Amino acid sequence: xxxxxxxxxxxxxxxxxxxxxxxxxxxxxxxxxxxxxxxxxxxxxxxxxxxxxxxxxxxxxxxxxxxxxxxxxxxxxxxxxxxxxxxxxxxxxxxxxxxxxxxxxxxxxxxxxxxxxxxxxxxxxxxxxxxxxxxxxxxxxxxxxxxxxxxxxxxxxxxxxxxxxxxxxxxxxxxxxxxxxxxxxxxxxxxxxxxxxxxxxxxxxxxxxxxxxxxxxxxxxxxxxxxxxxxxxxxxxxxxxxxxxxxxxxxxxxxxxxxxxxxxxxxxxxxxxxxxxxxxxxxxxxxxxxxxxxxxxxxxxxxxxxxxxxxxxxxxxxxxxxx
Length: 323
Ligand code: URA
Prior knowledge:
38% of the residues lie in helices and 24% in strands.
């Protein structure tokens, strides 16, 4: 069988502000009046992302940046010169601020449509499902942006702030099945503004693989998303100050499991400490399933504890596969 690869993107913008804002997606109108999104062949020497950006520029005049974490594919068969071809299309998600579009000769026009209106107009079921998926992801992206803007403003609002002022937000796909919660950023994370990039991060990657997952498929955050100077443990007050933000991040992502790594994470979400005696437990609270385990730093320090954490991540893998 022959294969053909294409790449494109769902491009959206917010029309209006606040509660009345509408989310509009860009659709190009083909000569037969069907709607499509900018997309085209992945040429030799290109990857999907490069191809999608080039096609978007050619077909809409937009220089797109992609929202990390969104992954959508379709595939379908067609016949070319009597031969069956499997075509795979990878879609990205992009947000733009303006409504200006410059179409190419390939299309006769364009429309900015809300997802529901587009779904009514589109013919193919897979395209309808993809628009719904892109809309859902865009909603999560907008909610997370708003929440993280508020969280990033915390040092300016607090009366007494003893943590670093650099916000280190969670990272990963907003539709992840697993939300990993650590303690607080370390010095490396504070420098780079990303969670788990140091030695604990390396160990965490190994644990993630024990669950049959990849880092790019899980959401990773800390119970306190600011570096405590000298790498001290966050205080009770600091944990409490950040608790609501973490709960709201979990509510946006709606993972199947939240993995509480270490005592700070367990205290933050379930108000207990002593993860080494309770590791491997699944605890359900307010509709969220938590799996208790150790913090990777504990394993970096005491290699012998690795077995406990590994067992917990293997359990996580089995639970995910059971569904
Ligand atoms: N430990 C954490 O708990 N979070 C990080 O981001 C890094 C190390």
